[in-house]
Amino acid sequence: MNALAEALRLIVTLDADLFEILWLSIRVSLIALAISAVISLPLGTWLAITRFPGRKVVILVLNALMGMPPVVVGLMVYLLLSRSGPLGWMGLLYTPTAMIIAQVVLITPIIAALSHQVIENLHQEYRDTFYSMGVTGRRAIVAYLVDARFALTTCILAGFGRAIAEVGAVIIVGGNIDHLTRVMTTAIALETSKGNLTLALALGAVLLTLSLLVNALVIGVREYAAKRQYA
Amino acid sequence: MPDSLLPIRIRNLRLIKGDRAVLDGVNLTIEELGITVIMGSNGAGKTLLLRCLHGLIEPDQGQITLGNLTVADSRDQQAMVFQHPVLLRRTVLQNLAFAVPDIAKADPQQLLAALDSVHLADRANQPARMLSGGEQQRLALARALLSKPALLLLDEATASLDPASVLLIESLVKAQSKRGTKVILISHDQGQGRRLADEVVFMSGGQVAEQSPADQFFTEPRTPVAEAYLAGKILF
Amino acid sequence: MKHLIICVTLALSTHTLADTIIVQSTTSTQNSGLYDYLLPMAEEATGVKVNIVAVGTGQAIKNAMRCDGDVLLVHSKPDEEAFVAEGFGEKRYDLMYNDFVIIGPESDPADVASAPDVVEALQRIQQTGAKFASRGDDSGTHKKELALWREAGIDPEGGSGRWYLETGSGMGATLNTGVSLGAYILSDRATWISFANKQDATIVYEGNPALFNQYGVTPVSVDKCPTVNRQAAQAFTQWLVSVAGQSAIAAYQLNGKQLFFPNANQTKPDN
């Protein structure tokens, strides 16, 4: 109860620190989502509609990567971006960019695997017609992405949910630096470690509210789609 | 009209499913323009033959040539209308535009004219999958015709449609045939066969049992199995 | 892809500014709020923007050895000296001290409060079968705790998972766990004072010279790590050990208590 009151207070008083970290959370996760979607949606589609040797292995690996612990991703990206790592020269460790990279690595397999499922179902329906119309390759991938657009919002939402709720990877590569790389989840971890459980819970409530809003939006979009037989 | 796909020659076509030959040595030559109606009981191999012709199925044995072309080389001159039309999750007009992007860019009026010909002009901007079954199939036909095919295949395209849609589709198919498109259609409907067919190919047990001019087929079929079929006496 | 990364970097990063440094730090200095108070002053005085990465001492040293920091601010003198000896640090400065305390339930079932010294206190915990929550994370506090067990002639690893609970986490997380379990915990005083989830736990043992806790600051060597911002790292370090920095540290209070005692340029009895 205290936590909810505190959450409400932080929101209605437009607490500057809260909105800074909330905005960074959203910004980092949205950019990660955009980059990941550009990679994973065509990849998932391509895997659904083409047949090549080793395709099943790729799908298996993709599904396995969905379950990769964020902290492992964080560690891998840390070793990559560390000054002594292969990409150290870019100076990206402890920046929001590093967090974006970690989140992209984390959610790309998820969106790719889920969209692969969605497109595979649609492919069952469209295959003969597309073949008959001579629609192949790039044109087919784009057409599938356009036609599955509403079902794919759920895949993207799953990716966004994972990205914005994730703490293990971003705390390693971002460093939880105040006013630079502190996001909602790392702030919650910090406040918990300081024993400020009420504040930590309040931040959690704010994050939950954000998640509810995003979900409501997606449900609205899907309702619209269903009404027009687009789903 | 691009190069003629005639004559269509099908030689010793075999297709095995499990341990059964579902196409068991089909031999067929179609030389004339006009409308060829394929008839036969369920399981006779009509749909499979049509799909082989369109390249949707690779036969296990045999040869198909269309004019001097192989199936693969002739595909962009073929169009097919399926029993259950598959429409994109887009508007009616966008469905046409997707099928013929070049025309959509160069001469969008053609798309509207095509919609008009299937009596769907007023539905242009509605979601295609909201249309009724008959309307959807009319749209699918308009889509197929826009590509100006040399060969039009219809697989029971009017089964389970309302009579008005059936008659509209029939008249459009007939008109297209007059314009020089070879039409091959599968039908169970003898009335439709009589109305449309210039010749009939009757299939039974994965083989062509009879190929006759339509007049002859419906009055005096040459094979007992076709006679029994027309009399409604064959059950599989 | 590379272009994309660079664009995003430009859009988001302030890290590459010439006057920005990363400090690999122990957690107590952050959790106690010292940096929130100190860094604006340091920035004002030196023009250096300081970004803190607060992890355990062990991890902070390893991160710095990978050149992922410009300054090291931790509390494990032998390790810091080894860091300098191996060439990773330029020179180590004593910065400030406070002390470790033993936290336990108010009821004090092992009667730690009346122990004559810290060795006896630890022995009582082990003998009465009370629980002890350890950091278990190679941090400065963890190293200190292990040294104390050695002095007490006890190998707590034998009771690992039964009475000796290694959380493998930071000080705050270990306090959360230990307090909830009614366990004893070794904590630095600053973190404990600023810790907000004390419940019925309290300081049961304190004030023994053996519990001295020295913090040190070491600029990372530009010879080992060419990417280090040496000028800014030096400026920040020198300000910390200057009169201005030292008096700022002395002036920091939480709940009316001074948390850190500056002792740069002084000789302190080494434990």
From TrEMBL, chain A:
It is found in: Cell membrane. Signal peptide: none annotated. GO terms for cellular component: plasma membrane. CDD domains: TM_PBP2. InterPro entries: ABC_perm_TupB-like, MetI-like, MetI-like_sf. Residues 22-218 form the ABC transmembrane type-1 domain. It comes from the Bacteria. The chain crosses the membrane at residues 21-45, 57-81, 93-114, 150-177, 197-221. One of its GO terms (biological process) is transmembrane transport. Keywords: Membrane, Transmembrane, Transmembrane helix, Transport. It is a multi-pass membrane protein. Its main location: membrane. Belongs to the binding-protein-dependent transport system permease family. This is ABC transporter permease subunit. It comes from Marinobacter confluentis.
UniProtKB/TrEMBL annotation, chain B:
GO terms for cellular component: plasma membrane. Residues 8-230 form the ABC transporter domain. Keywords: ATP-binding, Cell inner membrane, Cell membrane, Membrane, Nucleotide-binding, Transport. This is ATP-binding cassette domain-containing protein. Belongs to the ABC transporter superfamily. It is found in: Cell inner membrane. One of its GO terms (molecular function) is ATP hydrolysis activity. It is a peripheral membrane protein.
UniProtKB/TrEMBL annotation, chain C:
InterPro entries: ABC-Tungstate_binding, PBP_domain. This is Sulfate transporter. Gene3D superfamilies: Periplasmic binding protein-like II. Keywords: Signal. Residues 1-18 form the signal peptide. SUPFAM superfamilies: Periplasmic binding protein-like II (SSF53850). Residues 17-242 form the PBP domain. Pfam families: PBP_like_2.
